[in-house]
Amino acid sequence: MWKDSLLQVLIAFLPVFTFMVWYSKPERTRYTHVFLGLACGVAMMLNMRFAMVTDHGIYLDFRHIPFVVGTIYGGIPMAALLLVVYVITRLGEMAHRWEYMLFAAFLVVYVPILFSRISLIHLHSRRVRLKVATIACVMLILFQNASYFTSFTDFKLANLPLHIGIACVFGVLFLTITLICIHFTELGFERIQLQVQLRDVSNKYRKEMRRLQQFIDNTPLMVVFCDNKGIITHVNDMALKLIGSVGRGRILGQPFSQFLRIIDSQSETDQVERVLRGEDKLTEILRLNGRTFYTVYCPISDIPSQGTDGVLFIGHDVTELQRLKDEVDRMERLSLVGQMAASITHEIRNPMAVIRGFIQLLNERSQADQQSYFRIVLDELDRANAIINDFLSLAQNRIIEKEPANLNVLLNDLVPLIWADANMRGQIVDLRLCEDMDVLQVNSKEMKQLILNLSRNGMEAMNDKGVLRIETLNFKDTVQLRVIDNGVGISQEKLERLFEPFYTTKMNGTGLGLALCLSIVERHNGKIHVESTVGEGTTFVVSFCKPGRHCW
Fold it and tell me: CB–CB of 318/325 below 8 Å?
């Protein structure tokens, strides 16, 4: 008898154990209600096969345990199927009318309550499912006990305590086994839920990591990660692009100081070491391939109390910003020069005109041997007047009148003057004009002044055997003027300050010639560019945008 009872208990646990073995992958979630319903149906049939009656008239039948588990977790369709199986098997075991009446009364109460709970069971927590299982067990225990007590034909009051004790033991055992099955079923669901949550978190983590990696690699910043020993662990694509042909394999695993040597930095100290020693965010200006970078060294730490886990190096290319800043400074200086020119021109020109007039008068009345001295004074006055005119030309608010003109025609007008200047210096002028030249909107007087200034600068930079080449080129959107000399050239340091007012490399220069040229070019919506090699010569490239075109 006890062996049969133990076998029924094991069969009651069978659906739960098979479910825990089968339900090992999240992909099987959609079939759990079908599997549990079928497994519980098989367990019900096996328990009915091994059901037995004890010597005291107790009907040991544990088919109700898989019935409760299957109806709770199998959903409405499987619960209805299990109920049909249960009703059919129970009706085949009844022999008296009162048993049918009792069973019908049980179904009238049990079915509406249980199915109303099952329809919403997926919306509630584990506690609610345990509550539903307890209600179902209590109702089944009451039905079983009612069937048990009504089955006695020779009931004696003296045996009542024994029958009540047996009924309580059966009820407690039935409820305990059912709740244990519910507990293990819930463990199976929780395990898969944890797997699903872990998979979702892992997928989100990988997705965020890919996004972060793409952001780091595609950001227009130089990014380098170092560990707590100063060893490079990651370098983005922008950093590799800026340092040239050095591959990622040569960078990773190397000290950050090696990275600084590769990029030919002028930094004398390794800022990474300072950050690893506990210093806060550090900044530094680095020079790389002629460009300027504003760099930041930041400590990386997950938990502040555990020190620094590494260093993040970020480099921002501020070359254009620096160029714009220099351009603004230059414009401010030009504006100041223009204001000075506008304010002092009349104050200086008037007394100079008076002085020049009296000098000429004295020159006419002086002796012949003294006239050379007056001529020197007159030349210096003319030179001072020319400087004042250059001041006036640099005024930023100057309004000029433009008219259609051909750059080749302007050059042909100036060729005799340029040739005369070159002959005096023993130099040669090589004129190469484009045959088909488009018309520009220019101020002819200023354009001639621009050409003369650039030509004379080129001739002054050459010796008596120099060749000055003047070219014109006609492109799709622009017209280009090139003035090329084979003189001494200009160093990189001087090139950066070449167009600054009052900056000159000549002994008697004023530093206003090229500043004036730049002012003229900008007023004509053009750009001027200088290419020079020390010892080989210099090329001034002036580009003018054609009317109706958007060049820059």
Answer: no
Q: What is the pLDDT at residue 145?
A: 65
Contact partners, residue 394, CB within 8 Å, separation at least 6: 334, 337, 338, 341, 501, 512, 515, 516, 519
Contact 293, 318 (CB under 8 A): yes
**pLDDT beyond 90 at 481:** yes
Q: Are 422 and 414 in contact (CB under 8 A)?
A: no
Query: Tokens 């640099």 appear where?
Result: 394
478 and 523 housed in the same domain: yes
Q: How far apart are CA 82 and CA 71, in angstroms?
A: 7
For residues 192 and 231, membership in a common domain is answered with no
**Percentage above 70 pLDDT, the chain:** 81
Q: How far lies 64's CA from each of 12, 144, 303, 326, in Å?
A: 9, 10, 55, 90
Query: Cα–Cα distance between 87 and 91 in angstroms, integer?
Result: 6
Q: What is the CATH number of the domain that holds 515?
A: 3.30.565.10
Whether the CB-CB separation of 450 and 407 falls below 8 Å is answered with: no
**Looking at the 3D structure of the chain, how many domains does it have?**
4
Is 114 in contact with 76 (CB distance < 8 Å)? no
* pTM as predicted: 0.45
Q: Please, which pLDDT band fits residue 123 given cuts at 50, 70 and 90?
A: very low
- Boundary (domain end) residue, out of 317, 345, 380: 317
Helix (H, G, I), strand (E, B) or coil at 100: helix
